[in-house]
Write a structure and sequence with these properties.
The structure is a homoheptamer of 97-residue chains. In chain A, 0% of the residues lie in helices and 41% in strands. With 97 residues, the first copy, chain A, is an all-beta fold. The first copy, chain A, has one domain: 10 Kd Chaperonin, Protein Cpn10, Chain O. In chain A, the strands form two sheets. In chain A, strands 7-8-2-3-6-9 form a six-stranded antiparallel sheet, with no helix packed on it. A two-stranded antiparallel ribbon of chain A has the order 4-5. The radius of gyration of chain A is 15 Å and the shape is elongated. At the F-G interface, strand 9 of F face strand 1 and strand 7 of G. Strand 9 of chain A pairs antiparallel with strand 1 of chain D, so a sheet runs across the interface. Chains A, B, C, D, E, F, G: Forms stable complexes with CPN60 in the presence of ATP. Chains A, B, C, D, E, F, G: Belongs to the GroES chaperonin family. Chains A, B, C, D, E, F, G: One of its GO terms (cellular component) is mitochondrion.
Chain lengths: 97, 97, 97, 97, 97, 97, 97
């Protein structure tokens, strides 16, 4: 019975996509192929006010696939699942097929 | 006979929710399950003035359930009870059932 | 014949309230009960100018009971009495019965 | 089947141009000749908002040849290829024949 | 034949008041009584420009008795006399009888 | 066949003037006489936007003789020649005969 | 045949006044009397732009006698003479007889 987290300010709740370290046939993949650190945006905050007092909305939205920095982010556990919180300025980009 | 604390600026007074480290039946829970660091907002400050001189109100309100950062916050004792003070910008998000 | 100190900018002159470390009956209180670091505001500065040139008055006023941070503040001796100077932004909140 | 990365804010996705360390005839070039650290811009972010809330576009565009700083940048692997992400303010200049 | 110093920006030229470390009768005073670090303002600068380009005058004026911070300030010798320069923001307050 | 570099933002491309360490007659000059660290401006960037969004042009122009700081600057090799990139704010001044 | 240096931004070119370490009669002066670190302003830059884009002129002018900080400044040699460059904000004040 997990609780829902609504991030504050420009924070973004991300569920990391764990890259398979084995192929379906059970062959171990070399370390390099797991390098892409990506995730799915679960929830975003309302944004932050700039110096003029205007609200700047968060640069990503729920459902986006995002490229994450190698370090940083705050681990959060909600129910059984593990998530990470990032400031939107720390997210590197969005991924598209 | 506890005194009431009214926080200044964008500070937030939080009562931490101590997660049970045993189940009702007395079984010790593994360390991971106590990871969620949450609390209840008891009182909030009036907010801070931005560079333009406008008052930006605090991003959470009395009664909110909040997700707290692992480090930081100032321990405060009022009467018998222990509370913590946070800047609203350090609170990670609000929790909803 | 103590001199009167008028603080500059957003500084606040505070007289700390020393919590009794013994009860009236002479029983030593455990360390925890003296944890509340509070004081009484004796004098406040005029405030500071924000980036727009507007004067932002100090957030507390003479006579307020205030909760002080554990560290910081500048010790000042006027006549026989000991006071402390704080920036108003470092004062945690006001205390009310 | 590489995914496409759209950088956020003022980030720039760059494919580094690896300088040949041998001539076509197989003669090893001295270390100095490989000093120029250049790349080709693959994608740019939308830019960042300044303090006034105006969007400042990124200073380079897709297809530009750019001179890169010796240190910094974030390695990104998309499909088989290796790229680097830079903030546009860290890119030294554009190269023209 | 001392030269006169006109401070620049928000600097304040102060002549420190050396507290007597002996009473008139020659009795050594305990260290604590010399704790008050005060001085007399000899000259002040024109002030500094804020971000809007307005000149913010210095917060103290010639002749003021001021309470000085324990550390900081720049020692200046003009003729035979020793003075100290402080930024007005580092001066703690003004002293009044 | 050197490529041309157009600096970004307030960067300045400088060709350093190497002071002769010997006189024409072959007499070694003492170390001190080579102290002046000067160069010639080869290319300048468009400038940077200030907080108001206005473009502030670079403070030096192509062809200027400039006095350079002892440390800093980024070495760049274009074709056979070695250049240095500086932020215009790091250039100390312009030199005139 | 010294070249003339025109400082950039708010930089100030100063010729230090070396205090005599001996009296005319050859008597060595104690170290303290050489403490005053003063100089003469040779040239000043045009000033710097504030956040609003207005040019703030340099706070001293050619010919001023100035009091210099004990540390800082950049040594510059023009022809045979040694000068120092300071940001005007680092100059402590002007000296008048």
């Amino acid at each position: 019975m997990a609780r829902r987290l609504v991030p504050l300010f420009n924070r973004v709740l991300v569920e990391k996509i764990v890259p398979p370290s084995k192929t379906n046939a059970g062959i171990l993949l070399p370390e390099k192929s797991s390098k892409l650190n990506s995730g799915k945006v679960i929830a975003v905050g309302p944004g932050i006010h700039n110096k003029e007092g205007k609200l700047i909305p968060v640069a990503v939205k729920e459902g986006d696939s995002v490229l994450l920095p190698e370090y940083g982010g705050t681990e959060v556990k909600l129910g059984d699942k593990e998530y990470h919180l990032y400031r939107d300025e720390d997210i590197l980009g969005t991924l598209h097929d």
